[in-house]
Each structure stands twice: as structure tokens, then as C-alpha cells.
Amino acid sequence: MIPTTRDQSLLGIYLNDHLAGAVVGANLARRLAASEREWTRVDVLDRLATELGEDRAALHDMMADLEVPVRRAKNWVGWSAERAGRLKLNGRIFLRSPLSRVLELEAMRFGVEGTAAAWRTLRIRAAADDRLDTDRLDSLIGRARAQVDELEELWLDAAAEVFGGHPG
Q1: How far is C-alpha 113 from the geometric centre of its chain's CA atoms?
Q2: CB distance 101 to 147 below 8 Å
Q3: What is the pLDDT confidence band of residue 32, given thresholds at 50, 70 and 90?
Q4: Regarding the domain with residue range 5-163, which homologous superfamily does it belong to in the CATH classification?
Q5: Domain residue spans of the chain
Q6: Per-residue model confidence as pLDDT tens digits over 38-73
């Protein structure tokens, strides 16, 4: 099936929105890993930061395969939003708050769930568009599920450290 101009336009909007979100997520993941060098789970944060950067690149590659132009303005807005998110009130003015880890892990999880939705959407599209690699999409969907599970574990640990109690 050949996509219509309308389909291609909607796909372009959708994928550019997800690319902007992926830019935010990759930047947040790198910053969180760099800020949490003393945390016992920093190895997982480092790996997730790498994977989220790879996921952003994979989406960019698929957009090129689909001939969807990248809208740089949306990426800039996403980049700016991530920077502005650093200014949130978290109980401390100059030092990093333990609450920051909890909130940033929540934001990363939301981002990964959004990326997983984009992979599933592209997987649906792949049934009618042979420019998409279904095996690659299946792999990315599986990785996103694993990332969500890992972020849940990290979040539980961080929340238990900040608010008391035991994770799980």
C-alpha cells in the first residue's frame, strides 16, 4: 500500500513529536547518570542512557527510511523543555535533592513508554510499508519493555530511599 500525502503528513507530525521526546529522554538519561555517580545503581543508569541514545538514533534512521523530514524546531523545543525541567522546585536551591532522582526516573519511564508506543505504531505501519524492518521493530519493542521494567525497579529503590519503606 502506498501511503497517501495525508498519511505521510500525519506520520511526519507523529514521528517528529516522538523524536523530540526521544531527544529529551536521551538528554535526561545522560544527565541523570552523570548526576548520580555515587548511587549504587549508576551502572544501570549508564546503560539506559546509552540505550536511549541508540533508540533516538534508530527513530531518526526510520524517519529517513520513510522519507519523513526532521523538524529541527521540534527538537529544539524538546531540548529547551528538558533544560527548563531542571529548574523545578525540589526542596533545595543549590544542591541536588534526593527527590530529583525519583522525579527524573518517573519522567524517563514515561518517555520510554512513549517510545514503546511509537515502535508499536511503526510495527503496525510495517504491515503495509516494506521500508520498515519488522525484526528491528520487534527488538526495539522488547527492549522498551525491559527498559520500563528496569526503570520501575530503579524508581522503587529511589522512592524507598527518599520516603522510607522497602521497595516492592
Answers
A1: 7
A2: no
A3: very high
A4: Ferritin, core subunit, four-helix bundle (1.20.1260.10)
A5: 5-163
A6: 988 999 999 999 999 999 999 999 999 999 999 876
